[in-house]
Write a structure and sequence with these properties.
Layout (H helix, E strand, L loop, with lengths): L21 H26 L13 H24 L10 H11 L2 H14 L3 E7 L4 E7 L10 E8 L6 H4 L3 H10 L3 H10 L3
Antiparallel strand pairs: 1-2, 1-3
Helix pairs in contact: 1-2
């Protein structure tokens, strides 16, 4: 039987943020995120009975399902991490996150400038990650859920820059949304993620 993924509960703090409205969150979480989870479950259900004998790299049901499984799964995970790292008081990072940011970027200010600039440069996501190979933090940009971030990079802070994340509040103006995002980062969540990997 296929693994069914349940919807992750939304933090109450995400419904009263500075610069990101409840209407924006209601659509983003309630429609878009839940849509990814629903499709992921549908894909995994279909994989249970897919005909493996027709597998082909040009086209086959198995190829289509496995390709879209990663898109839906990453869409699910990235949104869960995004909502989880919102609802805080923002401001400068603290704790282990700040230590690593200062070590690997020179200063918090340099890191934030790069993080926000990538948010203007890519179409989908900005991900502050810890690379398990070089043991350093990196800001990565992704144009889509299933391309852009290297294997072995653990995501710590997730920024959604698709238009659905800010269109209600800011129309096509992305820069003020980036400022609002930074005002609502939950750095305690980022530090908790670091702690899970003993970093």
């Amino acid at each position: 039987m296929a693994d069914k993924r349940d919807f992750r509960d939304l933090k109450q703090a995400c419904l009263s943020m500075d610069g990101i409205s409840q209407a924006e969150i209601d659509q983003h979480y309630g429609i878009l995120y839940k849509g990814y989870v629903t499709k992921l479950n549908e894909i995994r259900s279909k994989l249970e009975s897919v005909d493996l004998t027709t597998a082909n790299q040009t086209y086959s049901d198995l190829r289509g399902l496995k390709t879209e499984e990663i898109f839906a799964l990453n869409g699910t995970k990235l949104h869960e991490w995004y909502f989880d790292n919102l609802g805080g008081k923002g401001g400068k990072a603290h704790g282990r996150a700040l230590e690593l940011i200062e070590r690997d970027f020179g200063s918090y200010e340099k890191w934030e400038a790069e993080f926000k600039a990538i948010g203007l440069a890519v179409r989908g996501w900005v991900v502050l990650s810890y690379d398990l190979d070089d043991q350093k933090l990196h800001n990565y940009g992704q144009d889509a859920h299933n391309v852009g971030v290297p294997w072995g990079a653990y995501p710590l802070l997730i920024l959604d820059v698709y238009e659905h994340a800010y269109g209600i509040d800011y129309g096509v103006k992305r820069a003020p949304y980036l400022d609002a995002f930074m005002k609502n980062v939950d750095w305690a969540e980022v530090n908790e993620r670091l702690g899970k990997y003993h970093l």
